[in-house]
């Protein structure tokens, strides 16, 4: 019996060979993927686009990287990047198409939806109310919005809403398009009546859509004039500072909005080869149970706003007009960058409040209820550790398809990136954006060493 079990020389040869063969096949496979990602894709998708706009001569290399994004095939349609350094505009570049189907070029006046980057604008409105002494972060929401104080939400604070701790990433009721439109009173009523999915403050889970109405309800109650978030932002921030930024597109401005396209499967594969962390991100999404918070939040309360739907919803002008402080901010990169440059240079809020905004209120390790990965949050922003200075943070907010707002108060730097050729990833996993951020730091370090 023993002799029979002993592997023959042939079997050893065979298994060795199969080991060699499989290693060889794997290497061929990896090499093919790399040829596909780094040679074939740039040939297929890459193109030389004339780059428009302004760049400070010292930052010329940022323009080169922006141009390379198109040449390497990372920009399907159009894009706009703006950088403020020490409160001065040093980059405002745009290129490509605002609408590829109509071959309409991106111009100085093109606007793009900010998607979730809008949440930073909403956070700023709350900060302005705090600055004016009309609101405290630790106050219960119900102090400003009486109807909200029911169903276990009596003690939910403004800070918890801004930290996505309110337990309302989805609600049991659906909010129809009709109810979401205009003043959205019925949407607000349903949010105020909802029962939280967890004890408010006991956990954090990203609220992709409802965050907008939560902030709207708080602003209406705290503002002595009772204005909506949209109107408050327009009259207290955009107009006085001359900024072309709205929450919800006005009907007569719809023609300026960029038209979105979504990534192809080829681009997904290219991006995963380029940065395998993306595979982890995709798996974190698709391996979650159908009852997971993230899937519930795409279905409720607004199933028609699911960005993963077979037809991307936000090309619909009806959705672009919604006054939703979580998704429908609309602007160009320059004006959003200018706004937050003013903020960190104390032109909008007082210095002690800006100091407070530059640190997260939630930075302990936790399982994030919606995206699982713990995100540092606070005041309506997301935070990252500062790239060089310990115990300091950068902040801002990513948006769907790689829209991005990046704020580094230490360096006095704001970077905003917008594009309508939606990307597979957001934040630093989105290579064409990451490349612009790292190049900006490289130039700034060089300047500071001279
Ligand atoms: C709110 O706080 C009060 C006072 O601490 C407490 O009595 C009440 O049970 C709390 N309500 C909820 C829903 O947590
Ligand atoms: C600055 O903002 C804080 C809120 O963080 C407020 O308490 C304070 O009164 C403000 N100071 C000035 C000078 O406006």
UniProtKB/TrEMBL annotation:
Gene3D superfamilies: DD-peptidase/beta-lactamase superfamily. The keyword Cytoplasm does not apply. Keywords: Membrane, Transmembrane, Transmembrane helix. It holds the Pfam family Beta-lactamase. InterPro entries: Beta-lactam-related (IPR001466), Beta-lactam/transpept-like (IPR012338), Beta-lactamase/esterase (IPR052907). Residues 65-426 form the Beta-lactamase-related domain. The chain crosses the membrane at residues 20-45. The keyword Transmembrane applies. This is Beta-lactamase domain-containing protein. It comes from Panagrellus redivivus (Microworm).
